[in-house]
């Protein structure tokens, strides 16, 4: 499908939010975006409404649009529910995936691996996000996919430190994350739900400490939420 100014604006804003080129809570200037993309105000507002529906931006009455913020409450909720949703999506993906989706997942993993080898942090953020988006598509569940999509926005933004390793241990964990993706693909191919769920928790634990580097200034520790009642309930049910 040919790109249009409207689709370019949509994709660019999504990318800039995921890669933190646009900071959380940043205001979006409707007039300057209209001029930059050669659009009238109406299609720009259409894009704003679409992105708001997907959880990327917040439209405030009489104040305009802003990038969806991240605060103590949103981060707390993220750490409470992310492992549960990822595990449920994983089980549904095993049950419902189509061969073309598995092929798409493999191609995304190749791009992710290439980005990890060249330490291209921006590409890693986007390819990792796409990898987990495909899991949502594989689930085929209209209730879970929007929840996953909203989680992935903050996961991408919180996880930036993970894709910018500063020491050998962080580099080792990044490589393990790449290997986990291969494990997900193998488990899907084998239709092994339990293996996928086990990997979800391993994958989550791997990145959790790096996420704490992002949120420490706000005084929030993931340990306060991960491993708590919600996660324990999921582990008992799996």
Automatic annotation (TrEMBL):
SMART domains for this protein: FCD, HTH_GNTR
Keywords: DNA-binding, Transcription, Transcription regulation
PROSITE patterns: HTH_GNTR
Domain spans labelled HTH gntR-type: 3-70
Entry GO MF terms: DNA binding; DNA-binding transcription factor activity
Keyword DNA-binding among UniProt keywords: yes
InterPro entries, sorted: GntR_C (IPR011711), TF_FadR/GntR_C (IPR008920), Tscrpt_reg_HTH_GntR (IPR000524), WH-like_DNA-bd_sf (IPR036388), WH_DNA-bd_sf (IPR036390)
Protein name, entry field: GntR family transcriptional regulator
């Amino acid at each position: 499908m040919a790109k249009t100014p409207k689709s370019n604006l949509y994709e660019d804003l999504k990318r800039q939010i995921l890669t933190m080129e646009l900071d959380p809570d940043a205001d979006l200037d409707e007039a300057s975006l209209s001029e930059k993309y050669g659009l009238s105000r109406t299609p720009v507002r259409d894009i704003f409404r679409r992105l708001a529906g997907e959880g990327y931006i917040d439209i405030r009455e009489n104040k305009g649009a802003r990038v969806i913020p991240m605060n103590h409450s949103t981060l707390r909720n993220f750490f409470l529910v992310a492992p549960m949703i990822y595990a449920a999506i994983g089980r549904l993906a095993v049950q419902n995936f189509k061969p073309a989706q598995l092929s798409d997942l493999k191609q995304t993993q190749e791009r992710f691996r290439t980005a990890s080898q060249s330490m291209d942090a921006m590409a890693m953020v986007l390819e990792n996000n796409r990898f987990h988006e495909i899991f949502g598509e594989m689930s085929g569940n209209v209730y879970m996919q929007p929840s996953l999509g909203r989680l992935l926005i903050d996961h991408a933004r919180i996880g930036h430190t993970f894709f910018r390793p500063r020491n050998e241990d962080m580099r080792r964990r990044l490589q393990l994350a790449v290997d986990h993706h291969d494990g997900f693909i193998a488990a899907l191919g084998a239709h092994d739900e339990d293996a996928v769920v086990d990997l979800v928790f391993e994958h989550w634990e791997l990145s959790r400490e790096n996420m704490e580097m992002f949120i420490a200034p706000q005084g929030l520790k993931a340990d306060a939420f991960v491993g708590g009642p919600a996660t324990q309930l999921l582990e008992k049910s799996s």
